């Protein structure tokens, strides 16, 4: 029964019968007599209605039989109530025609069949058209945003009604006819009446149009209030109509776009799962046969792993089957498999033109009638997943053109031929190009990581460069100060020597005591050593200027402190000697002068 009740012809037939039954019901309601008497036309209508009801009874029994074992159906229960009520009406009017007017409460049940026809039409349309399903889903998802849009539109309607209502008093002063005034007050007397009038005009009511025509007849050159009122009403009606239509169409179009995108994403997910299942099934089948991903295989291995003979008698003659299948191959991969390394080297040494010729040959290779006939004797174990023997043969032949075929290469080639994802550019490449492409991506990633590390280090150096420049400037300043200090000490040393020489010339060398002369020589030697130490410090700082520039600020501060302390000691010692000489010179004590 399911083969009959679930066909398109059956649905169309039931829809036609529902329309015919509804037409008969309407005619009976309009033409029935009050006393229950029947004329020829009513007899024909009643006979037609009885035949249609009987047909619905047979259809209901067929649907009940088809529903056995499929669970409960509330639509079938409603159809049963309608069919039983219809039969009650038919038998009641047959035995008591005069009581036909008393059955008015049963006849409306037959109108419920219209709901069934609508439901069947909608379900059939949705089942056979994906666009209709998307449109219905879009309408369902528009409920919430459409409700918000209607709330905003109603607020704007209320504001427009307030503006129109405020113009009514001035409008009534310019209207002369009392009948028109009453109509204006009925339509725009309150804010709610004005809102209902505007919404009715947008919905298609003609009442506002007739009122505007009467107001236009009352208008003139001196009645500007009527013209302003008419313009305001027409403007708000046009504006709100366009806004409401735009909001509805915009929300619906947005939801349709979103639903269509979701449907495409779902379709892509289904395709991805199917393709993943193909690769996983192939890998599982070869692993169960004892072939690893890197093992080389030939057509016999593929046949023994994936091919299932359709004729059981062909299994006995295994050697003959192998020979027949091997003859189908244009390229003989068995010979290349025997000399694997040599074949690989020869393949690597092919020129670009030779590779292009092989790729073109691979694309132009097709199965002839004899090959198809031989392959038709077998069926792939993954046939339910879209993998056929023709796909296996084409994939193996494509990879055999480039040398020995390993399991991994063969699985990828089968995936390229059997996959329903045809928009991915990577599937247009053969396996050798895919490997080169993956290596390029890997090397590019390594180079990119190196560049990022170099950029990081350059950024760190740039961040340290201002500090290094400041340290170099501070070191240069310290060196200039040390050179100036050395020059001052040299000048003071020369001045002291000139002063000592002058004193010796004035007093004579014989007047100088031996102890003072020894002390003076000792002080001179100490002063020379201090000057030499200072010169060495300056030379060291000039020779290591670069290292001082990168050194820490604490190191430069320590060197400056040592040099300053040494200079302060030398200056203090020299000034003490000068002070002693000046004191002896003032007292005029002979034999107490210094002979530095």
TrEMBL record:
Ion transport domain mapped to chain residues: 9-247
Alphabetical UniProt keywords: Coiled coil, Membrane, Transmembrane, Transmembrane helix
Chief location category: membrane
MF (Gene Ontology): monoatomic ion channel activity
Entry GO CC: membrane
Membrane-spanning parts: 12-31, 43-62, 74-95, 146-166, 226-253
Bilayer topology annotation: Multi-pass membrane protein
Subcellular localization: Membrane
Coiled coil: 479-537
Protein name: Cacna1c protein
Organism (species): Symbiodinium natans
